Amino acid sequence: MSNDQHTDHDRLSSEQTAEVATAETTVPPSDERTTDLRPGADNCYKCTACDTSCPVAEVDDEFPGPKFQGPEQWRLKRSEDTDIDDSIMSCSNCMRCDSACPSGVPLSQMHNTARGEYVEGMSKLSREYVRNRILANYGRLARLGSRVPRLTNFVMGNRVTKWFNEQLLGITSEREFPAFATQTFREWYDERGGSKIESEDRRIAYFHGDYSNFNTPEVAKALVRVFESFGYEVAVPEQRCSGTPMFANGMLEDARRAAEFNVQTFSKLIDEGYDIVCSCTSCSMALRQEYPELFDFEDTELVATHTYEAIEYLRLHEDLDEAISETELEDEPALAYHAPCHARNQGLHRQALELLDELEGATIEDVGDSCSGISGTYGWKEEKYDYSMEIGEEMFEEMEDAAGTTGLTECPTCAMQMEHGTGYEINHPLELIEKALV
Amino acid sequence: MVNAPTVLVIGGGSTGCGIARDLAMRGFDITLVEKGNLTNGTTGRMHGLLHSGGRYAVADQASAKECIAENRILRDIASHCVEMTGGLFVQRPEDSGEYFRNKLQGCRECDIPTTVLSAAETRAKEPALAEDVERSIAVPDGAIDPFRLCVANALSAQRHGARIETHAEVTDVLVEDDTVVGCNVRHHTGPGKRTHRAPGTTEEIRADYVVNATGAWAGQIGELAGVDIEVRPSKGAMVIMNVRQVDTVINRCRPKGDADIIVPHETTAILGTTDKEVDDPEGYPEEQWEVDLMIDELSELIPVLRESRSIRSFWGVRPLYEPPGTGTADPTDITRDFFLLDHEERDGLAGMTSIVGGKFTTYRLMAERISNHVCEQFGSKADCRTAEEPLPGSEDFEVLRDHMEAFGLRSPIGRRSTQRLGSRAEEVLTTDGPNPVLCECEAVTRAEIQDAIDQSGTDLNAVRIRTRASMGNCQGGLCCHRMANELHPEHEEPTVRTALDELYQERWKGQRHALWGEQLSQAMLNHVLHGTTMNRDHDPARQETLDFDAFDTGIERTRASDGD
User: Fold this and answer.
1) What is the mean pLDDT of chain B?
2) Which stretches make up the 4Fe-4S ferredoxin-type domain (chain A) (predicted)?
3) What is the DSSP letter of A365?
């Protein structure tokens, strides 16, 4: 700067600058400011497609809908405004508004950021905060509980525990807590000695997430075996929760820590030629869309562009459809398939149907494009349980009408809801593919 | 005052309304006439800057000193119209360092408080600024809503007994024995609050004194009175962005030039401006290149403007004036000072004074000066109280800030409504009935619309300037009809329809120069929505001679098809 020498000289006495300084104190330094998402409102022309696609707005009259939560609320914001309307906590983060918007308004980014700001201002002692923190950090509890899975399952299934959870924490007693597997996926993987295949050019790093590690290891095992059958080396690096339940509960600091760990670990593997593959569509969603929207660690973009959902990856890089069409299954029950909202957002909501249509012996029926209603932790909240079931009603009815009595979906919490509403057993498409190919 | 002198004020802009308030508070019997709605002229067509005086600190220090003094007064008496955003004079690498120092020195000489910010401090304050800005001077610039300010002045004048007549055009100035004794006025839809489709009337308004506060139109009133007033109207273009790119007023720190300011205004940011002399304050070309120039030039300061959405643009005319014989060629060099033209002294015509020149920030001072002058004519010793007495809406506002959430409204809606209404919030927003949001872009509820209708009859543009309803990104596409609906059942369908048409037209007018990108999509969506749901593009009911009997009832056809 050529005129630097004048700067100090030009400064006036503090007394004279007091008036200006007052006007400035309202503006926090840039590193403390939250992202300014007001420009995102430029894309909105108020067509209201987001509101009509919002499952929560349909059942909850108090919820003003994504158009208000997103572009309208952001546009009305001034830099010094910190208060966020509490209705943001009723958004289930299904992200259907994102895919409904014809104009690219970053709705879920707006919601996630506003929710984070709202939660920052919440009392850390309130029941809602404590409950949401617990739900958002399910993985930490699971780590403890799965050390003694039988005892945990007994305690969590106990009527007294459920009553206690509902009264004290506001976690609904209507739902069955998901059972922990007696052996976690990671224990199984270590026990078998890691990947059976070593390969220089076909290698994936598996992001399994907490649920398939602790609760449904059969899904994770299916992924390993299916990829190995195509000659892939499957690495299973250390990892934390993808952050999905944390975003949905506005626990952005928890999410930031988890995301940073995941980005650091997985980006190293990308450098070694690995691509990241997920079996849960919400996990792949988090790595691909939410990380770059909310964080800017080094390599966040790199991780996002190298992340795939499992079936998507095999359809892109291998001829999975061909392999499936050459095999057949016998005595396979008819299946009722539900596409998770987060799969829809990644354009993946038709792939399981298209693929398994080629599989002789399998009968698969789509149960429509409605939301299952659970949206991760949303349906676990005592005050949201009824809404959650009302949203799910359409899917339950379609499932009842479908020929099969076994459900199929990629999302673990959609699976919980499907089971809860119909009593059906629910599988993951990878399990079916494993059965067909391995 | 028994038999108070009657004064007729012509012009419902900031100066006229300020004069009406000042004189009414001093006990005069005031009538104000305005040919459109309040702020119809220059006041409603400015960029909303509350000057710190910094812009004039080098070239026009007298104006700068007046600005900073009035800036401090308005923050106090008009707090609900002012947002103290602060302002920056930003130096880019190609801008002169010497001018930067002159600016700082000038501010110091005019008692304008300043702080010099380094490049890093400047960008920390406004992250949207270009990365290569060198440094800036922080000054107490602010944003001010000219509509609310003008309306509050008129409201205060009314509370002091004034009669305010909008849509009342002066058709003649009455002169008897070399003295102005009043005016002939044409009321577009009769006197009082406006009612669309009501027949127009004329009225002779006689007064002991006439004040011509018509700004750029002063010459036209002068002509009716037979005197020459050489105002030199100069047009300036302004562009409204959909969102705020900045929360501080950003000025380019360079001597003079077009497109050197961006003002955060309510939900939007306003880019300004140009300076070009025109012959007629109403008939001048509005050209696309002026809009393009604004965006191109200001993108050097704020690069994101290049890909940001603009929702409309507008042009205003400055009421510039310089004494005969000064002969300044470039309008940017004409002083921004104001002049009081006593036509008795100047032209031998008693009973009338004109006020010309000046700027919005000093409207109150101008009103004070001319009110003093009127007082002298009548030997009145009444003091001016406009610098101390807050405007309606700005009384005890701090107390109310604590009750922002008290009206059952969601947070940004309650917050915006309370900011607009100030101390009137409780009176306006307390309602027994349902109070839905009618304008979603600007967060305006039914209660606020109804309050504005109470003030302004069926004139939905007058409702608009009071509430900001229909001024957001959909430009009325989703709310014009909801606003019009509020006129029913007090008004019949044809009246409501005419009022709606007028508002919708006005909203459309300003979008003509913003039809690209997102605003083009918006305009198309609005057009299709209004065409398909209200048949606004081809409404047969608008034809006076529609033959309803020619339509079949539909019943016979249904019966016939039953037999198929």
Assistant:
1) 92
2) 80-113
3) E
What is the distance between the alpha carbons of residues B448 and B452, in angstroms, rounded to a whole number? 6
Tell me the chain B residues in contact with residue A68 when contact means C-beta distances shorter than 8 Å: 410, 440
- Asked if residue B273 has a cis previous peptide bond (ω within 30° of 0), the answer is yes
If DSSP codes are grouped into helix, strand and coil, which group holds residue B29? strand
Cα nearest neighbour of B264 on chain A: A78
Chain A nearest-CA distance from B203, in A, is: 44
Q: Which residues of A touch B521 (CB under 8 A)?
A: 45, 103
**Is there a contact between B299 and B305 (Cβ–Cβ < 8 Å)?**
yes
- Complex ipTM, two decimals? 0.90
**Gyration radius from chain B CA atoms:** 25
A340-398 residue pLDDT tens:
999 999 999 999 999 999 999 999 999 999 999 999 999 999 999 999 999 999 999 99
| DSSP-derived secondary structure for A240-283 | ---SHHHHHTT-HHHHHHHHHHHHHHHHHHHHTT-EEEESSHHH
Disruptive mutation site among B242, B295, B310 for chain A (greatest number of A CBs within 10 Å) = B242
Distance from CA of B433 to the nearest CA of A (A): 18
pLDDT in tens, B94-150: 999 999 999 999 999 999 999 999 999 999 999 999 999 999 999 999 999 999 999
B288: left (phi over 0), alpha (psi -120 to 50) or beta: alpha
- Considering only CA atoms, which of A349, A290, A282, A277 is closest in space to residue A316? A277
Give the 3-state secondary structure of residue B536: coil
Contacts of B412 in chain A (CB under 8 A): 72-73, 76-77, 81, 85
Distance from CA of B148 to the nearest CA of A (A): 18
3-state secondary structure of A291: helix
- In contact, A321 and A358? CB cutoff 8 Å: yes
Pairs of CB atoms within 8 A across A/B: 135
pLDDT of residue A81: 81
> What was the pLDDT predicted at A1?
36
- What does pTM read for this prediction? 0.90
- A417 and A397 in contact (C-beta within 8 Å)? no
Q: How far apart are CA B23 and CA B14, in angstroms?
A: 14
pLDDT in tens, A280-315: 999 999 999 999 999 999 999 999 999 999 999 999
Do residues B125 and A24 lie in contact, with contact meaning Cβ atoms separated by under 8 Å? yes
DSSP, collapsed to helix, strand or coil, labels residue B389 as: coil
Q: Which of A240, A245, A402 is nearest to A335 (CA)?
A: A402
The share of chain B scoring above pLDDT 90, in percent, equals 82
Q: Which residues contact B489 (CB under 8 A, 6 or more apart)?
A: none
Q: Which residue on chain A is closest to B98 by alpha carbon? A: A3
CA distance A205 to A189: 13
Nearest CA in chain A to B417: A76
All domains in chain B, ordered by first residue: 6-42+147-230+336-378 (3.50.50.60), 82-143+232-316 (3.30.9.10), 397-506 (no CATH)
pLDDT at B325: 81
Given a cut of 70, the residues of chain A with pLDDT beneath it are: 1-34
**How far B525 CA lies from chain A's nearest CA (Å)?**
8
Question: Residue A92 corresponds to which amino acid?
Answer: S
Chain B residue at shortest CA distance from A118: B411
B302 CB neighbours in chain A (<8 A) are none
Query: Could you please report the per-residue DSSP string of B268-335?
Result: EEEEE---EE-S-SSS----HHHHHHHHHHHHTT-GGGGGS-EEEEEEEEEEEE--TT---SSGGGS-
Checking if the pLDDT of B559 tops 70, the result is no
The pLDDT-based confidence of B547 (bands split at 50, 70, 90) is confident
B425 membership: H or E segment, kind and range: helix B425-429
